[in-house]
Structures are given as structure tokens and as C-alpha cells.
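Protein entry
_____________
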Amino acid sequence: MDTLNALIAPDEPAAFSLLDVATPTWPVLIVCDHASNRVPRALDQLGLPEAALLDHVAWDIGAGGTARELGQRLGLPVLLNNYSRLVIDCNRKLDDLTSIAVRSDGWEIPGNQGVDEAGRERRADAIFHPYHLAIEARLARFAGTVPAVIAIHSFTPQMAGLARPWHVGVLWDTDPRIAMPLLEGLRALPGIVVGDNEPYSGRHPADYTMDHHGEAAGRPHVSLELRQDLLGTAEAVSRWAGLLAEVLTPILAAPSLYTRWPS
């Protein structure tokens, strides 16, 4: 890319962070599409006040920390997107109308109004493509097997005035190999309300990361949604990472998991 037109300055973080493991416990990569609320300086906070960038519209609150700790507990690599979903949403196709949102949950986003094709390409070249190429590159290093992908997201306790009672949601579509035993294991935990494709659905087209790196490639995969009010402290994040690690361990330990779907 022409450095004069680069969106991310040399002293700013790269598009993604890879927290790697020399010898992963299993051939699994944890990813977090919405780990950060950072906006490149060149975009001047997209014209938004600080309150908007701290809001859920800018990132998945608590998801990045949960992904990091889950990776540590399971001994797995973690790849995190370092820029806000408001700059470009790495979990949307580039032609999706919400790829660069002009408004989100009551917030108008001035810096996204009237972005032309060159502007969209600039954001995709700086963030979207490097992030997804990094996912593929790390998965390719699991040679001789079909690796799995786990995505960590978070959701608001209310949306459009409606309460969302689930503590955790398991999102999946055609491949049940992780999702079904994960649902069973989470439901066995006392006091945990579990959503099967709730509050979002793995069958919705706005699910690019799992569709592209998981389903289209035949890799085992699942997305997890955690409720943001349950991730408000470091202790809460640690608790949820521990619960997820406990339930995921026997699922990921099965050698039969790591085959192409349908086999």
C-alpha cells in the first residue's frame, strides 16, 4: 500500500494482534472480531464523542479480555482485531450495508457518512484484509489436520427495549460438532441461561468470519456470545473464561473433531 495513503500510521498498532502459543494444546484458533474500540488517528474518532467509542456500538465489551484468558487457560493461540467495528466491521462482507455503518443503535456516525469507494477500499486494505489473511495464515500452520475456529463476541442485555435473558449464546449453522456438545455442557451448569442461536443466529448472513473461515472451509467452528453486563470486571471475565474452558476441554480433546465437514 502507498504509505502516503495508509490509514494506520507507523506508530499505531497493526490491524491485528496474534497471541501465539509455541505448542498449542489442540489445532484450534480463537478469534475476536470486535476486540477493540480504537480508531486510526487519520479518521479523527469518526467525529464521535468519547461516550460513543466506549459504547457497545464501537466494540464487543469484554470479548477481547475473555478471548485472551480463554486462550491462556486452554493453551491456544488468539487473534484479535485491533480497530473498532465502526471503522470497518470485520464480521461483515465488504458489500454489506453495515460493513461501514452510518448509524448504530441511536448513534449517527459522522465519519462514515458518504464514504466513497476509495475510502472503503482504504479501510479494507488497512484492517479487513490483513485481519482475515492473518486468520488464514495461522490456521495454515496447523499442518496435517483440519483446525477449528472459535469466535468470541458479546451482546447487550437489552436491545430495542427488549430484555435479553441469555447469559451466553451458541451460534452455529450447518456444522454441529462443537455447537451441540457445547450447548449441552453449558446447559448443565447451574444458573446459566443458554441461547441456541440467540440473541443472534449463525444462520444470519451477517456472520462473515465463521462463514468464511469455518463453514466454507469445512473446518469445525462456533461463535460464542456473552452478555456484556456479566463481563464488567476482570473477575467476571476470568469466571466466564473458566466456565468456557471447562466445557470446551472435552469437546476439543476429541481427535475425531479435526476433519473436514461434511467428512
